Amino acid sequence: MIAPRLDWLLPEPFLDPPAFEGFGRPVATLLARRGFRDDPGLRAFLEAGAGAFHDLSRMADAERALDRIDAAIAAGQTIAIWGDYDADGMSAIAVWVLALRALGVEPVRHVPSRIADGYGLSAAGLDDLRRRGVDLVITCDCGVGNVAEVAHATSIGLDVIVTDHHLPGPMLPAAVAVVDPHRIDCRYPDPDLTGAGLAFKLAAALLARRGQSVADLAAVASIGTVSDLAPMTGESRAIVRMGLAELAVTERAGLRALLARAAEHPDAPTGRDLGFGIAPRINAAGRIAEAELAISLLVEEDLAAAERIADELEAVHHRRREMTTAAVEEARALAAASPGEGPLVIRGDGWAPGLIGLVASRLVDTLGRPVAVAALVGTEVRGSVRAPVDFHVAAALEATAAHLAKRGGHAGAGGFSVLPEAWEAFVAAFSALPRPWPVRDDGVPAVPPGRLVVDLVLPAAHLGWDLAEELERLAPYGPGHVEPMLAVTGLRLAEARRVGSSEQHLALRMRRGLEVIDAIAFGVGADAPLPEVGEAVDLVGTLERDTFQGLPRLRIRVLDYADGAASPLRARRLAAAGPGVPVVAAT
Questions:
Q1: Was domain 53-317 assigned CATH 3.90.1640.30?
Q2: SS3 assignment for 465-483
Q3: SS3 158
Q4: For burial by CB atoms within 10 Å, which of 143, 151, 266, 569 has the most?
């Protein structure tokens, strides 16, 4: 007997979905539930490309920023790009490097040390750039909160252009330009661009002024867009679609070396490759090594150098995974001492600062509650916050600002630093915040924490290549357009075995009549109970196509499972079997 590990939030039956060209009834039902009503609207969404981009002149200070960059190029001034040490910031730096190189400029690139400097601009770093002859600094994915630091830059003769997508504070920096779609006076229609997405729009516009373009700008920007969990709608969706198309044909040596190590099919990369293969490798450099390692790979054009850098980055990536596993185990033990559903704060001074965001994310996934994870770095405590959709992280940090030295973030994630003497006061204030805090307004449904949202209840007879191809046509997936979650009924277990070096995963072979369908449940743990062979088992997960021993196959990536008697679908099956109740092919 297998009890469900999660609550399943099942959809209401949808008996009469509209017809969509090229899609069968199950996917048509899914599309109707997601608000699509006709083929033109669906095509505009699915085929989002350059036509989805808005006029950049509607972005506050964008033209002013481009004018200043143009003037710097014309005058032969030295330009520096200052970015964040995550994949979004590093991708944004790479976008600017590629664009400025095309205009005959090799910019200075600067990423602060996560340990020595922390997030954002610093007076010491700006002083160093000025000594090196820099005249103009363009920030990426940071800067909107650095009022004092921008004032310092001005005092030493440095011009600063801020490009950022984080929520501004009550005062904007007195920079030459502050380009942030979240400015209260900004009327740009799409506020969800990431730092890399913003860099892409600005760099492309700069090139267009001179009648130029550069291959792979969208390819690089798509990495930051996916890694920073931008909604897969609007301009972010267009950037990712364009980026995947560019990655498939890129001749840039660094990108090809990265794809060879991080994509299942390097000549046909997917959004999943970006999110689970490429972005973690880029992030690893900023977490436990030097961000410059990843940036240099993104812009590298020499094959031998690219292979060498990619091998080095791969080693960093594997080391980061090992360190994360150990830190997560320690954090879960600490979290067990503070049960409940409210905000949780834990601290491990032995954890690498670059890993605390990952630890927080893993705890949110398993605990379903807001989590702040922190570590002592030098003379201050630095933390990262992650949270479910009913808890606005940036607003929570603002509410506890009296105890913080620095803070920044957006709805789902953020970071902070606090002096050790203020630590206990911060813990008390953050832990006391209620849920929801406040209700998020970013379009993400406020699903109760811990619930697994099912998009389609699907009899196993409907699983097939046609369904898999239709679901692939809806990609790329992400926030605002998540990968469809299927609850598959009518399967019996043929085989179950633990797999992986530490037997943390569960490989299942499910029987549908005489056919066998593969399934995999990742990370269930070595002590997870095995279902009994022959049992009727309902699976909840996503349908994917992959290759096994050189042959294509369908596979279910399982998020949860339950035998027929314990399944939340049992009541629906009983109702459907009653007299006069229609049995819907896909609900």
A1: yes
A2: HHHHHHHHHCCCCECCECC
A3: coil
A4: 143
pLDDT average, residue stretch 281-310: 97
Q: What is the pLDDT of residue 6?
A: 58
Choosing among 3.30.1360.40, 3.40.50.2020, 3.40.50.10090, 3.10.310.30, the CATH entry for 338-431 is: 3.10.310.30
| Angstrom distance (rounded) from CA 503 to CA 548 | 20
- Sequence-ordered alpha helix ranges (H) in 352-450: 356-367, 393-399, 423-431
Domain with CATH 2.40.50.460 in the chain: 7-46+454-576
Residue indicated by tokens 């920007």: 221
Chain mean pLDDT for the chain: 91
Give the CATH fold of the 7-46+454-576 domain. Answer: OB fold (Dihydrolipoamide Acetyltransferase, E2P) (2.40.50)
- The structure tokens 């009022």 sit at 147
Among 89, 48, 97, CA closest to 217:
97
Work out the pLDDT band at 109, boundaries 50, 70, 90: very high
CB half-sphere exposure, 20, CA atoms < 13 A: 25
CA–CA distance, 336 with 19 (Å, rounded to integer) = 49
Closest by Cα among 281, 233, 239 to 258: 281
Q: Is the pTM of this model over 0.85?
A: yes
Listed residue (50, 104, 47, 46) closest to 74, CA to CA: 104
Q: What is the pLDDT of residues 408-466, one digit of tens each?
A: 887 888 999 999 999 999 999 999 999 888 765 554 445 555 578 899 999 999 999 99
